[in-house]
Amino acid sequence: MKRIRTSVWLTAGALVVAGNLYLTLKEDSKADRSQWLTSWTQAAEGDVVETFQTTGVLVPAEEYPVYFDSSKGTFLRFLVEEGQEVDAGTPLFEYSSAPLDREVKELEAEKAQIETKIRLADEQISQLQSKLSSLESDEDRDSYSTGSYDAETNSESIEIQIPKDYETAKAVIENEILEQQTEKRELEEQVNQVDTRIKDTKSQKSELIVKSETEGIVKELNKTLGNPIITLRSKQAAVQGSFDEQQMSEVQEELAIRASVDQVPGTLEGKITNIEKYPAQGPSVQRQSLYPFIAQLDENSIEGNKQLLPGMKANVTVITDEALQAVTVPVTALLKSGDESYVYVLNDKARLERRAVEPGLLVDGLQEITSGLEAGEEVVSDPEKLMAEHGFFVTPVDYQAIDKSEYDNMTAKEKFKFILMGLFS
Question: According to the model, what pLDDT value does residue 163 have?
């Protein structure tokens, strides 16, 4: 009897093993195959940044030339020194005022001559009005006789021929007074014109002092008076460097950069503002073509840093592409079938789930997933080694996490269920 029971158990065991082998090895089997997993990872959230390295040198972001205009006069003096910081409106240099002073002196002499003529006209008008008054008096009218009348002044005199009859004589004097008054008005208008010219000429003196149009630092004074007579450099710093032919295919203006200077702690941030499209030394088959670039640094990253000086060498990281706060997985977790990309997700039902995803930026083995996967989900790290593409998965036991009391609290049915799962997995 004992042999029969033993034979039954052996036969049953063999059938179980044979059935499992059949279901496991049958190529088109629909039975779920459990997969033993030792390597998986969690989809993370992080930055994927594509970069390349180059070198550069710190330079002023911009330079501002200031020119000398010989038509405005001769040079008098510089009002700044090399290395001096200037603001908008700071006097830089001064023209000589000697030509303007001479012009003002000549205009003032011309004005004095005109004013002398006005005083003469006033005197003549006064004498003529006096003669007219005396002519109109009865006494004078009775004793009126023909002849001439001289209106004398301190500098000159005019002779007026007096007609014989009173009315005609009166008309002659009144006409002469009117002519003198007209001449006086013309002279006064000439004085106003000369005053305007004097004012305009004097106002040009304010233009003799040339002021800075922007803030910056005096880089150079050209004491030979050649142009530009003064060169200002901006306080803002930039990085100047060159890209090779390969790098030129990856870059464009407005790309962000990070720079560091060995002698100065911290990282400087900025962006590329100019890329020359012509090689610095001209095209040649004998040498590599290098294309100059300028990257302007952010004011916030250099503010207050007195250690940064033009000419310092900089290590430059050019950011050609980036995905910030992206869902990422190791590139080994991603598989492709035709146009489809997919990963194997370890879902909350302990099953392998093949899931289509959209890949994004790939940098140094880190793959961005733009859709189809969320941060925190578990994926198979190396799905190429999977024996089965669906079904349950089994992972090594974490013995430290085992609580014997949980097993003791299981019912006999639950224990039997888990034993069968182990046998048929």
Answer: 57
- Cβ of 272: how many Cβ atoms within 10 Å? 23
Q: pLDDT-based confidence at 306, cuts 50/70/90? A: confident
Contacts of 212 (CB under 8 A, 6+ apart): 66, 86, 87, 88, 89, 90, 91, 92, 232
What percentage of the chain carries pLDDT values higher than 90? 43
CA distances in angstroms from 189 to 178, 184, 186, 197, 199, listed in the order given: 17, 9, 5, 13, 15
Residue with token string 């004012």? 199
| Distance linking the first and last C-alpha atoms of the chain | 32
Provide the H-helix boundaries in 164-261: 166-203, 245-248
Cβ atoms of residues 39 and 382 within 8 Å: yes
Rounded to an integer, what distance in angstroms lies between the CA atom of residue 119 and that of residue 111?
13
- For residue 33, count other CB atoms closer than 10 A to its CB: 19
| Assigned token pair, 325 | 């706060």
What is the reported pLDDT for 352? 84
DSSP string across 30-60: -S---EE---EEE-EEEEEEEEEEEEEEEEE
Spatial contact of 56 and 259, defined as CB atoms under 8 Å apart: yes
What are the structure tokens assigned to 90, written together?
A: 């700071």
Whether the predicted pLDDT of 389 surpasses 80: no
Residue 14 CA to its chain's centroid (Å): 79
pLDDT of amino acid 404: 63
* Maximal C-alpha separation, the chain: 189
Neighbours of 92 (CB within 10 A): 20
CA angle, residues 194, 197, 201, in degrees to nearest 5: 140
Measured in degrees and rounded to the nearest 5, phi and psi for residue 159 equal -110, 130
pLDDT at 13 over 60: no
Please, what is the average pLDDT of the chain? 81
Res. 58: pLDDT tops 60: yes
Q: Whole-angstrom Cα distance, residue 311 to residue 309? A: 6
Instruction: Tell me which of 9 and 341 has the higher pLDDT.
Output: 341
Say what the pLDDT of residue 289 is: 94
- Extract the tokens encoding 286: 């004998």
- Give CA–CA dist 57/317, Å, rounded: 13
Strand-pair partners of 292: 242
- Residue whose C-alpha is closest to residue 329's, from 284, 360, 369, 357: 369
